[in-house]
Design brief:
Strand content: 25-35%
Number of helices: 11
Largest sheet: 6 strands, antiparallel
Structural class: alpha+beta
Order of helices and strands: HEHHEEHHHHEEEEEEHEHEEHEH
Length: about 325
């Protein structure tokens, strides 16, 4: 990089961004030394010139903090960042905990996050190797699917794709003999370590959801659609573990020790009613599904289905089958 007023100003801005923060400051002499090293020159940069440069940066909205140290020495730093440190940590941990993102992509994403802050703060973010997750074989497919679904939602265009899952031989099998699904996309969510497309399935005229890692050969249709009113959060709350099924009204009696578990799952607005000193009743909307049955059973004798009768019978049948399995 050739040394002139413009390159000096740009490099000074980069040094302040990359090497200073609320806990790391640089004096004029230290800034001068770093500029000397970069431009490979011996002569020190004039203090008045650097101060004028910082005034120019501040005039264009680049806020530079000044702090007086011992003997009145002034230190400079840049702290007005897009992300707070805790926000970067939230994003960092979300990336690390996503099982569908492979290790190489995690490294790339973490490195890019690090460029949003100083090198000092970036060095404190956890190493992706420490939190190595299961590599998803279909990650490249998921990336393609995310792009298509995102466009379909934003442009309100129908999506066409094939859908399936793996068999015991770990070969991918298509549902519906490989016929295309035509779906009007409403939302793209990340739930239970997977991405899901939520959309209106044209064939059965109902709202459904599809795991992105199970979608193949997706493409945008030229046909657009009018988006109806739809509450994504309500749909997700009813879809236990993202299983599909008929909407039902559910009443479940729980032991009081599970109150916070229920509130964590359904939120503080959940309808709960105290029955006695040891039990309470949850009333909520759900989907009649394997996911709902499994969710109830995981609490053992601390949860009992009160209604509807169909769900109660499903739980009883599952318990009996489990009992017979261990008796054989």
């Amino acid at each position: 990089m050739e040394l002139n007023n413009n390159t000096r100003l740009l490099l000074l801005q980069r040094i302040l961004f990359e090497e200073t923060d609320e806990n790391n400051e640089l004096s004029i002499a230290e800034l001068s030394k770093k500029l000397q090293e970069h431009f490979n020159v011996e002569k020190e940069f004039d203090a008045r010139t650097l101060k004028n440069d910082m005034n120019v940066l501040e005039e264009i909205g680049y806020e530079i903090m000044k702090n007086r140290g011992k003997f009145g020495k002034v230190y400079y730093s840049f702290q007005d960042r897009l992300f707070e440190t805790y926000q970067l940590r939230l994003l960092n941990d979300a990336i690390l905990s996503a099982r569908f993102i492979n290790e190489e992509e995690k490294k790339s994403l973490i490195q890019k996050l690090g460029k949003m802050t100083s090198v000092h703060i970036a060095s404190t973010l956890p190493d992706p190797l420490i939190f190595s997750q299961m590599t998803a074989n279909d990650y490249d497919q998921v990336k393609i699917n995310i792009d298509h679904v995102h466009r379909g939602i934003s442009e309100q265009r129908q999506l066409r794709f094939q859908y399936g899952k793996y068999n015991m031989e770990k070969n991918f099998e298509y549902h519906r003999n490989g016929d295309e699904y035509v779906v009007e996309p409403y939302a793209l969510i990340w739930q239970n370590d997977f991405y899901y497309l939520i959309g209106w399935f044209k064939k059965t005229e109902e709202m459904r959801h599809y795991r992105l890692d199970r979608i193949r050969n997706i493409h945008l249709s030229e046909e657009s659609f009018e988006r109806d009113e739809f509450n994504v959060q309500e749909y997700v709350n009813r879809s236990f573990h993202m299983f599909s099924g008929e909407n039902i009204r559910v009443e479940i009696e729980f032991h009081q020790s599970l109150l916070n578990v229920v509130l964590d799952r359904f939120g503080l607005e959940a309808s709960v009613k105290k029955l006695d000193d040891e039990h309470f009743l949850l009333s909520t909307e759900g989907k009649m599904s394997t996911g709902l049955v499994t969710w109830v059973l995981q609490w053992g004798r601390k949860a009992r289905v009160v209604s509807p009768r169909t769900l109660k019978q499903e739980v009883e049948e599952e318990i009996n089958m489990m009992k017979r399995l261990y008796e054989s």
